[in-house]
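User: Fold this; tokens only.

Assistant: Input:
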Amino acid sequence: MDRRAFIATAGATLSASLGGCLASGLREDEYDIGMSANAFQPDTLEVAVGDTVVWGNNGSRGHTVTAYDASLPEGAAFFASGGFEETAAAREGWEDDGDGTLSPGTTFEHTFETVGTHDYFCIPHESAGMVGVIEVVE
């Protein structure tokens, strides 16, 4: 085998073996909202009161799901991966220790009990536009 053929074969083998390592392992039926490099997919989802939404990190980077507490509908429960009770605490926990990070292949879920617009974001990728909206209807 000549050198070019060997390099091509070795490269293809390495790519195939690493491909499995980089995949999240989540199936699309395991989550409602996926997480790519810098986006929630879809970035807007409409659900009924009482529905549980599951976010799945199907990407290759760590992400968070964090509500903007100041814009939640009155009476709505705050939600954040990591179990925080407010946006500021979630930011601080992530900045200090990476708390609330969803590694590739993991999920987070929240049940929505209050009608209205529930805005949320990913702490490390907020500046890149990784924000989303859950619209809860009757």
